[in-house]
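Go through the following before class.
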Amino acid sequence: MAKALADLSVGGGRVVQPVRTILPVAPHQGFFGIMPAYAGALGAKLVTFYPHNEGIPTHHAVIVLFRADTGEPLAMMDGRLITEMRTAAVSAVATQHLARADASVLAILGSGVQAGSHLEALRLVRPFREVRVWSPRNARAFAERHGVRATDSPRDAVSGADVVVVATSARVPVLCGRWLSPGTHVNAIGAVRPDWRELDDELLAGARLYVESREAAGKESGDVMASGGIVGEIGEVVAGVQPGRRSADEITVFKSVGVAVEDVAAAALVYDAHRTMDNAHDA
């Protein structure tokens, strides 16, 4: 993901991707997204988002890969798990570059699949000694399953935390800037509609804001639209052309909306691994 993001930001045309097309499915309160990209690999993700689903995931997806040199179809694969993993991996890249090196307390707002994948991925880049979780419904079950601590409120979860993940289906802010300690880093991955929010005005006004793509975030994220402006793309930080964290006290926010190059790069990784396994088996 780090390479894909750097190529997107400073690759000089190595990545071609439009902003995703969103088709509202109004009678069923759902959304259908189309996300093509060329990044050496060629493909597209088709994804549905039905926020009111109960008993089944809110997101479903397939990813289709094509041969870049001939246009022939190569594979179709389930995109739900890839989306779950690549989203967390991108947040891990942001955390690696923006969180304080001594970050040791992680707070997660949310208890769904993204909460679990972020817990796993962020532990790869920081050695957290304490993890707290809050969710309106399933925090205690999540805490028992993952061996972390549930809290009674989002404020309790984030108070004194070094890294915060916001992974809820909120449409209004659930994280307030006044709750955060100096030096906190926030990964915000929900509220990917222009009229949805998960971060309050105080947080957005006082933080340094990073995104995957200025174009995508500026059109899709209500939080970004309400902010004082984007400092940079995380791929620019990875590539060294934009600074990351500048001081121990500043608050940083990575607002992720998810972009197609992440899906195509991850799917190509899966496809190449599958081919390698097949070749080894044949040998």
Summary: The radius of gyration is 18 Å. The chain has a mean pLDDT of 96.
